[in-house]
Amino acid sequence: xxxxxxxxxxxxxxxxxxxxxxxxxxxxxxxxxxxxxxxxxxxxxxxxxxxxxxxxxxxxxxxxxxxxxxxxxxxxxxxxxxxxxxxxxxxxxxxxxxxxxxxxxxxxxxxxxxxxxxxxxxxxxxxxxxxxxxxxxxxxxxxxxxxxxxxxxxxxxxxxxxxxxxxxxxx
Length: 171
What we know:
171 residues, mainly alpha, elongated, 74% helix
């Protein structure tokens, strides 16, 4: 396997290693800032995310990461989608660091942000550049990040909320 194939296909596997930490630690976890976010549902503010919610949210993001990795592999890293997702993935390291700093404690995802996400992002950009592929930062990626992540969380919340109601349980 050549290095371009490694960094295009590797985007998914780097994300998977990072998100396994979130799957293991996010259910039931709450952030002190949650109380200050008025649009968060009350049950999320009080009890955090259910295990089903986390599994579904991570799966939704997993589909996006898999599609981006496949497209990157197919285009040898030149795909607009692959480059945008790679950039967003790398930049999201800093959102993990910021949430941990705000909370003044561990937050889900922070343990793998620096040793997994950031080094992979730097390695991928350097590898692609060495093969003549310039990774462009698209100005819309940063503002799109909360929309994409918020959509994954919103889908997970609506589906798991509906299924818990149909079972007669609360989430």
